[in-house]
Amino acid sequence: MHDTFWCGLLLGGCGGQLTTKLYTDRACHFAHHPDPDGLPHECRRHARGVASADHLYVKSAAADWLRGRGEDARFTFAQPAGARLGSIVDIHFKERGLRVHLDPSTPPEWDDDREPVLGLSVPVDRDTLIRRWYVHRIRLDSEGTTRRVRIGTEAFARPTEWFALDECAITERGLSTPAVERIVEAHQAPTTAVWSPGKTRKLPAPDARAQALLRRLLYARRVNSVPMAKEVCGEIAQLPGVSPDLQEQLAAAVRGAQGWLEDQMAARRALFARLNSAVGAHRAGRVRRLLAQVDATAAHGRTEAETAIVARATVYYDSLDAGTRATVKAEAATESAALDAARRVRTYLRYLAALDAYTREVHRQVTELLSWAALAGTLLSADQAAEVAIWKERADRGPEPTPHSHVARRYWYQRECPRCHAFQGAECLLTAGTKIGQVRSVPHPERLQPLVEARKERQKAAARPWGVYEVTCPDCARGRGARCESPAGPHRARVELAQEYTRAKRPKPQA
């Protein structure tokens, strides 16, 4: 065998040569060769968990994904402002590009040519979400011996939706997911031609048309598009020739939509009323926040009164001096950071709920969860605060033991698992989170810990070799603990007697 192994520079290593450490009773691994002076080699790589190679998994997954779409991409691991290697992955292809931020060490540049894709721990403020409509996130889930990339789309007042890479695409807008299409359609709310029985083009049967309108009305409510819901209700009112059963369904759907529209309009009137009141009370911070909310949720179909309120609020805010605006922005940034922290907490709690073991990697995630929870403060619900408290308690206990790294694989499934009750010879199954019932990559600690404890007991019970000075010397009669009279050390007869006692497993006298 002529293969050689080296400490990977792309993992933050030193580039030095490695040697293999092969075992039958523990996990095999690599180790550095000693330094020329014989001292242990000191490597600069500190992160050794599975997440330390996430940038390489991202590169591999993105390369395969783009290659399947006919794109030839280049990858670089940028280190702006001294960021650690692997913090950022730049993906270049044609005129487009993506910058993947795997940790918050480098703030995203939203107006750069490269579209930011944010890791779970990278914050984004509310104003950015409103202005951009959405941002993309990335997470890596462990599946067996590899890491699977998933892309999430986060929007203001919407939960993050996650998709596999194969569900994503590159469009004129940049990276796109199924959620992006719904968000863009909800913002733009394009009008469609009203169906009329007088048109000469071939039309579907009335019942089929009614079914299509019911689906569109449901979709309009799901994406919170008031213009689309109004349009569909108008089309339903003009639809003739529908069977009696469908007429009842249409009537019920329109009644429900009318109630929903009234609620939406009431919320819209209340929003503009709050904005008008904030201007009258000269509450600059509230005016700024409500203006952003109005632009995000009520940008279309404004009445003259609503337009006047927005104009008045804009004039008021623009008339503030620079110092006041700076103070308002700082307060808004603090509030936005707390709101973003609360969103991050929800994301982390959903992610952690799918995990079955408290490993060192999970410990890092929980540490980040606790930091976000401290920033969110009272914005967390009682249930969220209780979940955070549970994870804090687990963090205080530290990572669970990983006995599978100290037990040979052939012994993993020799006994029944007390945690998931897997039979002898069967693999362990996940018992918690969203993937309950799926095969676990390694056995539960409770299944292997008895083997580790039994080995410790055997080692403890094993007879320790007799020491030279634990026997009486046959030549000089020096007793236990006393050195021989010979200046050259213990007599040979004494050494041989200690060896004989060890071979015979002779018990030692009680101290």
Order of helices and strands: EEEHEEEEHEEEEEHHHHHHHHHHH
> What fraction of the residues are assigned to beta strands by DSSP?
5-15%
Classification by helices and strands: alpha+beta
> Reading side by side through the largest sheet, how are the strands ordered?
4-5-6-7-8-9-10
Average pLDDT rating: 80
| Gap between N and C termini | 53 Å
Largest β sheet strand count, sense and barrel closure: 7 strands, mixed
Backbone shape: elongated
> Helix share of residues?
40-55%
E-strand count? 12
Q: Please, how many domains?
A: 6
Which radius of gyration do the C-alpha atoms yield?
34 Å
Low-confidence stretches: 190-203
Helix segment count?
A: 13
Compose a concise summary of this entry.
This protein is an alpha+beta fold and 511 residues long.
Which characteristics define this entry?
511 residues; alpha+beta; single chain; three-stranded antiparallel sheet; 13 helices; seven-stranded mixed sheet; elongated
Fold blueprint:
Layout: E1 5-6, E2 17-21, E3 29-32, H1 54-67, E4 74-76, E5 88-93, E6 96-101, E7 115-118, H2 126-132, E8 135-143, E9 146-155, E10 158-164, E11 169-171, E12 174-176, H3 178-188, H4 206-222, H5 226-237, H6 244-280, H7 284-297, H8 304-318, H9 322-353, H10 360-376, H11 382-397, H12 445-461, H13 492-503
Parallel strand pairs: 6-7, 7-8
Antiparallel strand pairs: 1-2, 2-3, 4-5, 5-6, 8-9, 9-10, 11-12
Helix pairs in contact: 4-5, 4-6, 5-6, 6-7, 6-8, 7-8, 7-9, 9-10, 10-11
